[in-house]
Amino acid sequence: MPADFTRETLAIADGRWPLAGIDEVGRGPLAGPVVAAAVILDPKRVPAGLDDSKKLPAPLREELFAEIMERALAVSVASATAVEIDAVNIRQATLLAMRRAVAALPLAPLHVLVDGNDPPVLACSCEAIIQGDGAVASIAAASIVAKVTRDRMMARLCRRYPAYGFSGHVGYATPQHRKAIAEHGPCPEHRYSFAPVKGVWFR
């Protein structure tokens, strides 16, 4: 079943509004940033068919992305770079990107729903929901925005570093990507704290 707006409706009834959903994309890749999105949906204009971005075909993700951007009350996207990931580790970089996304919202939330079990520390209350990106509409919307944004970022990086094929695997550890690293060495967008780069190449 697609994500629904039930959790948000209960929070609104409890006086916790505005409410934002946040999610991240890009914890696992060997290259590129980790990207977080924060979305405050309009309760009267929730797009139909919101779901975990990983479950959606790319054309539908793009359609929903446009719909979210047009209908939502507020949307923000933030990231942590590969250099930051190497400096503080992927968990801390992910939490940093989430905090940046919430801080960048033009409408400050009173409550935040986040996918997973590791919520960031925020100025407002924050609730972690395991598999929330497939169950909670606001988190699903954030998942879609983060995924589409990061994919576009990786496509731009592919034009800058064509040897690695970033637009195809978006930085994940495919055989093609590993082969390119072995042949060309890493580029500045690779995570030097991740194998197979770690301990072999240095910035």
Automatic annotation (TrEMBL):
Keyword terms: Cytoplasm, Endonuclease, Hydrolase, Manganese, Metal-binding, Nuclease
Keyword Hydrolase attributed: yes
Location within or outside the cell: Cytoplasm
Name of the molecule in the record: Ribonuclease HII
Family: Belongs to the RNase HII family.
Main location: cytoplasm
Residue ranges of every copy of the RNase H type-2 domain listed in the record: 17-203
GO molecular function: manganese ion binding; RNA binding; RNA-DNA hybrid ribonuclease activity
Binding sites annotated in the UniProt record for a divalent metal cation: 23-24, 115
Reaction(s) the record says it catalyses: Endonucleolytic cleavage to 5'-phosphomonoester
Job of this protein: Endonuclease that specifically degrades the RNA of RNA-DNA hybrids.
Gene Ontology cellular-component terms listed: cytoplasm; ribonuclease H2 complex
Superkingdom assignment: Bacteria
Cofactor: Mn(2+); Mg(2+)
CDD domains to which the protein is assigned, alphabetical: RNase_HII_bacteria_HII_like
A biological process term (GO) from this entry: DNA replication, removal of RNA primer
